[in-house]
## 1
Amino acid sequence: MTNTDDAETDVPPDEHAYVCEHCGRPFVHETHLALHRGLDHPTDLSAAEREAFEAASEEEETDLRRFRLLALAALVALYFGFLLTYAVVT
Amino acid sequence: MVSVPRLRRRITRLALASVLGLSTWAGVAAAHSGGLRGATRDPLAVPTWLFLLTGGGVVGVSFLLASFVTDRRFVAAVHGWRRHLPDPGRAGRTLASLLGVAVLAVTLAVGFLDRAAGVRNLAILVVWVAWWGGYVASTYLLGDSWPALNPFRTLADALPSLDRPYPDRVGAWPSVAGLLLLVWVEVTMPLADDPRLLATVLAGYTFATLGGTVVFGPDRWFERVDPLARAFRFYGRLAPLGVEDGRLRLRLPGGALPETTLGGLDDVAFVVTLLFVTTYDGFVATGAWTSVARATVGVGVPPLAVYLGAYLVGAVLFYLAYRAATRLGRRHAETYLSATYLARRFAPSLLPIAAGYHLAHNLGSVLVLAPTLAAVAAAPLSPPASPPQLAGLPSWFGGLELAAVLLGHLLAVWVAHATAYDLFPSRLQAVRSQYGVTAVMVGYTMLSLWIVAEPYVAPPFIAS
């Protein structure tokens, strides 16, 4: 469900990119490619690719959960930071 | 007689200062509940640095909050929502184009013939209040009706065209130069006081546009070169009403922005310039600029060169900052999508910010001067000696203006979020790709809040 049909890409010549065999879009990480296949070419998945997509989704969910905690911590820090600053200044 | 831009700036400053007061007033009132009631409110009880930090903080927080929305289908559904509407029909379109030409003709005639200056002159009121304040707001609040209304287009269609091939090499860069030139003229010349000068500029613009359309053909000209048509088209992408596959459709405000890919870096520069020119207009009216300008002119630099230098350097800095931000986003997102492509995708998210500031800057003067416009339009060549104005705006009005600025920023953060989801398969990658644009938005918020919080100082050395 991403939309990058007309995307320009820029792969450094000395790097190995994971290229999608359906649309040719290159990715830095294998997990990104697995997610991309599951999201954009869901009907063309082989059993192995489906498994890779599920594993990548799970990993993404774990990473997202960690990010949400960090974001929450940042929100709390900002809130109390401003609260204290306002209390001291005004 | 108060000139329109000056009045406009003064109203904006007052309004924003009163909002600033409002937010601190609650705290002050609670602390001194037994003290003097109705004591003078100090609108700047909060030091400027904290005010700016709070503004930047709000944008940062909205980015963090948006990052909690991780349901791809929800994000796509919000932007996919649309309804088709009935077509206004040929009669409606003809009527609109005739109206456009009639207004242009009346404006030019009154501008050249009528001796009344300032807000007693219909030409000035039509250009600054009805068109620049009211109509431009309608392009992002309702929809881009300029293709139907555009009087220059109606005239151009009636003229023959040589249809010379447009040099594709230069892309849309001429429109960036045109936009810079138009705003330069607006800032450095007293266009809101001198109707004859205004009519001359308008006539010059008409001739330049018609000359361009005769050489390259109207389609090419209004698509690639004419800065007004292009600005309204970009603003129209933000509006709920738009044309899709030849049919009128209704979407949520900003709904079309995440799927908008700008044509190239020329379009990116145009959007960034749209944001920059609003900032420059306010920046030259700050005390800091006055002292810098006076010092530089003091060492022998011609005043106009100082203004022009700051103008061009500022425009380039804005553009470079945005490019650097997309490169930063690209590094964090770990992607092979090119930095140019990311710049083309994320730039539309800056449009709601530009629209928010436009609304905050102009809403007040449009409302205050709307009765003036009606009274002067009734008798353009013998306007009343002191046409009516709205006596004042209620104190909550400042809140409305600040809300416009804030809403613009929130929409911008959301559009960037939805764009990132449209670009990257990994949602964490999508969040990281926004670091750059978020940093730019935080910086821009702080800069423009600083400009509005500074007291108005008439720009030195120029007549505006």
## 2
Amino acid sequence: MNIAKDLPKISKKKKIYLKRFVSLAKKVKESFEKEEKYLEKKATRNENNNSAGFLSNI
Amino acid sequence: MRIITPPDFFQTFKDTHILLDTSAFIDAFLNPSEFGKFFNELKSHDTTLLSLDSVKIEFLKGAPTAEKYNQKIDFFDQIVDACFPMTGNVVANLYKIVQVYKEEGKSLSITDLSLGATLMQYRKGLYLLTKNTTEFPTSIFNLVSHFNISYRKGIHVYGIFNIV
């Protein structure tokens, strides 16, 4: 199978400019840390809700 | 942190196409300088870096604001030359690969299956780069090469697979 045939047209190989890449990576890392904090909070909230449900069944 | 490749690594993948799994993007933002140089070395050997929209979505999901979402898109697009479109043939391969995996496929994500189905479509000329090596067993995939990432504490391994 011809890979190039199925791909969108790639005009030129893009070289990564390291300085910009490193600064962008820092921002993305911050975003992931925020997401993880949100997930942790959500997990705790779910755990608390489950506990309450469990107790109410006793 | 250091990326340690075998001596002939970049030459092996000269003029080829490599599919990147989500793990590569996550490690790239954690170690941007080293991964940036690594990707540039591949690009200088005319290796085309590709991915899938499902990988991109996996990477983007959870972005807390529009600005963060755009930063993630920008980061992803800096690395890849293009995303493979999900063609009808790849969808047909998804059904095939589920049968090939048998019970080992139960825990796989649709992204892992899509990567496998895309490799199945293009065979020899396309490789998959992933740290998630347990999901791509050598009973189905051919391990072509590997490289190590050496951290202060421990070593991680990336595999490069294809389907012959």
